[in-house]
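Entry for uridine-diphosphate-N-acetylglucosamine complex. Fields follow.
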Amino acid sequence: MAQADTLAIILAAGMGTRMKSESPKVMHRLAGRSMLGHVLAAVDEAGIEQCMAVIGPDMAGVEAELDNWPRPAAHVVQAERLGTAHAVLQARERLMGPAPDRVLVLYGDTPLLTPHTLRRMAEGLTHADCVVLGFEAEDPEGYGRLLLSEDGALLAIREHADATDEEKSVTLCNSGVMAFRGAHILDLLEAVGNENAKGEYYLTDAIEIAHARGLRTIVETAPEDEVLGINSRMQLSEAEYVLQNRLRLKAMEAGATLIDPDSVFFCHDTVLGRDVTVEPNVVFGPGVRIGDGVQIKAFSHLEGADVEDGAVLGPFARLRPGAHIGAGAKVGNFVEIKKSEIESGAKVNHLTYIGDAVVGAGANIGAGTITCNYDGFNKYQTRIGAGAFIGSNSALVAPVSIGDGAYVGSGSVITRDVEADALAVGRGRQMSKAGWAAAFRARSGRKQAG
Ligand code: UD1
Ligand code: CA
């Protein structure tokens, strides 16, 4: 269903003091993306075209996140936190005629909601005026309780602090997500008062008011782990756990083998091809794309990297932003690649740093090779031609170019360009003195005895 005339309002004005953090709560990250980013993504994926956030004063980082989102989201500032109904009312201008057909209220600190659930909420409005997303809480302490009539209609939401003991025994709780027909929302919000335990304007009170006015109020439900609200670092880690499990499942469903899924950590945007094998203890940072049939061996760390089909990485490989690994190439243990092209079939197997470089197709980079790309001020390029052979423990001092098919002798420090098919050796010449060691031992032994 197209959600063209649906507006999502994301409440994000709270600082989240329990996070004990300098940054606003919704900027804390899960799988490499802010909580707010996760909510914005769910809104986009649900096909909801209008989005606005209610934020607190002095939240420059949050504003930037909204402005830099692919489809920039508007925001309004709630100067004083007087409650969730008051927060939604900050969007009053957008809610005045002509109001959008449907308005969804979401929380910036409830980042695991799926687009599917958002669509269900919007669709619920085809036969109701207000839809509340509820869940069965294992521990309902602190949540608003959903009070239903005998026939399952939603009568009211009672906040924990205001609930009687009988109401507290209800385990069906308010997730915070609500959908309203646009024609009613403003009237309902304006009728909400603040005579309650916290002295706040509760959005939840809009339901009892709607019901009293003869509007149809219903409940949709979701599993508890989808509506997890984050108030503390503990809950942040619980949400990360849920999200990682989703991403692991998605990777396996798309045709990747994860030998020990629990030890593989994905970023929200990781893309894996088919028949990829990921060994235990691999971490994906942002911006990684892996082609088909790639093997990623244990303890590798990848970010901002593009890996073509059939490449083999690790164990203990580190790919940093701008690493492009060609088809069938090999990047072995304790190898770091940054902003470099490793062309198809090239091998960089052991103990090497390749930065700001091109390694031509089929080249072989010996153990311990270093591209010296940085002089403390600027970065310089290294070019290694196709089929070149770099002997072990060589330092290639950039800017420098090694021609196609050239050889570099082990232990060289290469500071000048090497022609194609040439041999370059840049190291102290070896000298040998026959019998020197024996003579030295004899001499030294005599001194000690005397
Ligand atoms: C709210 C619900 C409760 C529900 C619970 C689910 C109300 C009155 N209560 O309670 O029924 O079970 O969430 O987690 O709605 N916010 C603002 N401005 C404000 C107040 C809040 O932007 O003036 C934002 C917060 O940043 C947060 C969200 O709204 O993202 C929820 O506010 P919070 O104070 O955490 O509500 P709860 O007491 O948890
Ligand atoms: Ca809360």
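NOTE: The chain has a mean pLDDT of 96.
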